[in-house]
Specification:
4-stranded parallel β-sheet, Rossmann fold, about 55% helix, 11 helices
């Protein structure tokens, strides 16, 4: 009796992508297929393993692992920044220069949500310290206010503008089949407002309308007509990405778009 094929759940796909990304971070020169099979042996029960011989058997996995790998590198960079030693020349700074330096560092480290709240409070504290001719205590005052603001922010309602969710940018996909679009939507729908256009069910006027307002238009040129390409370029050529590959290439383009979104 032939073995029944294993279909991974969404959670298992996510775990597999994370584990493969961690392996690639340790040694990026090893074949990805090897890692896919190796992490299954290490972490998956026998009945949930599906060994592959090429990434074409799981095209979504390469993109998902790539995104997790980028996140791991980003976290490493943040950790390196947070643990790097302080400059030895700090003691030679004046009180005003030291306060300014601390304020600049705080601005970089604060999250976008807390920054507007905390920045106003820190500025007010420094202004008070300067007006009272307490330059030697300016840095301490700024740090104390920063800590107080972090504690207070948990109980103070955020500004109204922060409650609004950031609108996702629209990306138009041309030349994909519905099942391919669903695959892409599952992985990138949380990042972009993905719109599928195909000639069988949509008019050319809609392609122009969507393209004119799109952040990016990704077209599989092997499945597009010259008229479709002209329609896109006539309204938004700078946003048009010509893709000569398949679904995996489209996902790579979307992953790259995350850098500029």
């Amino acid at each position: 009796m032939s073995k029944q094929r294993v279909y991974w759940s969404t959670a298992e796909k996510r775990i597999l992508a994370i584990l493969v990304a961690e392996k690639l971070k340790q040694d990026p020169n090893v074949n990805t297929v090897y890692y896919v099979n190796a992490v299954q042996e290490e972490s998956f029960p026998p009945e949930r393993r599906r060994f592959i011989t090429g990434m074409s058997q799981a095209p979504w996995l390469e993109t998902a692992a790539y995104l997790h790998l980028k996140e791991l590198h980003r976290l490493d960079a943040l950790e390196e920044f947070a643990t790097r030693p302080e400059p030895k020349c700090v003691s030679s700074l004046s009180d005003v220069e030291l306060a300014s330096e601390l304020l600049g560092r705080l601005a970089k480290l604060l999250s976008p949500v807390l920054k507007p709240i905390v920045q106003d409070s820190v500025n007010e504290s420094l202004a008070t310290a300067f007006s009272q001719n307490m330059l030697d205590n300016a840095a301490k005052s700024a740090m104390a206010t920063y800590l107080q603001s972090l504690n207070a922010s948990a109980s103070v309602p955020p500004r109204q503008t922060l409650d609004k969710k950031k609108k996702k940018k629209m990306v138009v996909l041309v030349g994909l089949k519905p099942n391919q679009y669903n695959d892409v939507q599952e992985e990138f729908g949380r990042f972009f407002d993905l719109r599928l256009w195909n000639a069988e069910s949509n008019p050319m006027t809609q392609l122009k309308s969507l393209s004119a307002n799109a952040f990016k238009i990704i077209g599989l040129v092997d499945f597009m007509s010259h008229d479709q390409t002209e329609a896109i370029c006539s309204v938004n050529e700078p946003a048009y990405i010509r893709s000569s590959g398949g679904i995996t290439t489209v996902k790579r383009h979307l992953a790259d778009c995350l850098e500029t979104a």
